[in-house]
Design a protein that fits this description.
Elements lengths: L10 H27 L10 H20 L3 E7 L2 E7 L10 E7 L8 E7 L5 E4 L5 E10 L6 E10 L2 E2 L1
Antiparallel strand pairs: 1-2, 2-5, 3-4, 3-6, 4-5, 6-7, 7-8
InterPro entries: FixH, FixH_proteobacterial
Organism: Camelimonas fluminis
Protein name: FixH family protein
Length: about 160
């Protein structure tokens, strides 16, 4: 048996322990800061004061739009977004122009806006590349109303199609 060595805690040991301790804390904080800067900004509206002032007007537009009784259908498949809009009687509504604003709820880096064009089957469509996951899609269509027809949906894509 070897004799037990009596180890002393020296200033050098304390220095190494402190540097390792704070080094780990600093490394974790830098990693979190880097990951946070590459994800959601946390900003919901550019100017919350202006957004709050517009809330009642947008709510009134939504009520007027709901009173029309129009129905809509959306499809995402094969790298294409398609949107159909019909009136209360089921007749297709032709939009002069339409845009799809596609957003990730938590990552602004994948946001995109695509112009939808009228297809022979009556759909408004455009090619779009969306990864699987959660998306918020806002369709704005100029159908001759005072304000654009607005349809906002939150949906999940899996294997390139709506789930």
């Amino acid at each position: 048996m070897s004799p037990a060595r009596n180890r002393e805690l020296t200033g050098r040991h304390v220095l190494v322990i402190m540097l390792a301790f704070f080094g780990v804390i600093i490394a974790v904080n830098l990693t979190n800061a880097f990951l946070a800067s590459r994800s959601w900004t946390g900003s919901v509206a550019e100017n919350t004061h202006v957004a709050s002032q517009q809330f009642n007007a947008k709510a009134a537009e939504a009520r007027a739009q709901a009173a029309l009784g129009w129905k809509s259908r959306m499809s995402i498949a094969d790298g294409k977004i398609s949107y159909w809009l019909t009136d209360a009687a089921g007749k297709p509504i032709r939009a002069k122009t339409a845009t799809a604003n596609v957003r990730r709820p938590t990552y602004a880096s994948e946001d995109q806006s695509v112009a939808l064009t009228l297809q022979p089957d009556g759909a408004l469509a455009a090619p779009v590349h969306l990864r699987d996951g959660l998306w918020s899609i806002e369709i704005l269509a100029d159908v001759g109303l005072e304000a654009p027809y607005r349809d906002t949906r939150r949906l999940t894509l899996s294997n390139g199609a709506i789930q």
